[in-house]
Amino acid sequence: AQSVTQPDIHITVSEGASLELRCNYSYGATPYLFWYVQSPGQGLQLLLKYFSGDTLVQGIKGFEAEFKRSQSSFNLRKPSVHWSDAAEYFCAVGAVGSGGGADGLTFGKGTHLIIQP
Amino acid sequence: GAGVSQSPSNKVTEKGKDVELRCDPISGHTALYWYRQSLGQGLEFLIYFQGNSAPDKSGLPSDRFSAERTGGSVSTLTIQRTQQEDSAVYLCASSSYGKEAFFGQGTRLTVV
Questions:
Q1: H helix or E strand, kind and range, residue A92
Q2: pLDDT one-digit tens code per residue, B24-68
Q3: Nearest residue, CB atoms, A107 vs list B43, B55, B104
Q4: Which of chain B's ends, N or C, has fewer CB atoms near its CB within 10 Å?
Q5: Residues B35, B102 contacting (CB under 8 angstroms)
Q6: Residue B35: its chain A contacts at CB < 8 A?
Q7: Which of A44, A90, A99 is opposite residue B95, by nearest beta carbon?
């Protein structure tokens, strides 16, 4: 069965500093990988996805993520965070061929990002 | 519609009552998913529909939970004899085959 680990429950970053949120997955083959963001009181919004091809994926809001097969990781990065980036971030893995569908997405428990002024 | 729509947005119910949560997926999306998000927890997969059939019901927490989908569109998640531990945000998502899932805003269920 697939699984996702987000080792950091909370991360605090100063505004303007760089950010890296960690995500490790377990899956029997090449997975589909996703990062979603959930702002307070909001639904989940897709930041970026990896299906195949270039392992460095660009997303919305200046985020990027790199798929590293050897490390089973898909870490999310941003060079300079803004106060509006404060939110909950979820990494997810899905089955190839289903678009993250056949068994549903498997989510990590999330990382709560706090931005210090 | 333009996005996934869930109703009601908030529901407060008494312990032991039944509740129905509704999800209207994006038009044309064949896959529909229900997740549960409890306070301080991640997202828990409940059930997945492809068309009107549910090939994977393994995530439903107990036999008090059931879901159906009609016409390949609207889905309802029913919780019978609600318990306080059922309190959570219930999220619905839909997708086209081979594409990412889009989420609704969720239904916040509070069992008192």
A1: strand A87-94
A2: 999 989 889 999 998 767 788 899 888 888 877 878 999 999 999
A3: B43
A4: N
A5: no
A6: 104, 107
A7: A99
Integer Rg of chain B from CA = 13
Which value, to the nearest 10 degrees, does the dihedral of the CA atoms of residues B51, A102, A6, A46 take?
A: -50
Among residues A40, A46, A110, A37, the alpha carbon closest in space to that of B108 is found at A40
In angstroms, the separation between the Cα of residue A71 and the nearest Cα of chain B is 23
* A41 Cβ neighbours under 8 A, 6+ residues apart: none
Instruction: Find residue A66's DSSP bridge partners.
Output: A56, A75
Could you count the other beta carbons within 10 Å of the beta carbon of residue B64? Answer: 14
CB-CB: which of A101, A106, A109 is closest to B41? A109
> Which chain A residues in 9-38 lie under 8 Å from chain B, judged by CB atoms?
34, 36
Residue pair A112/A13 in contact (Cβ under 8 Å)? The answer is no
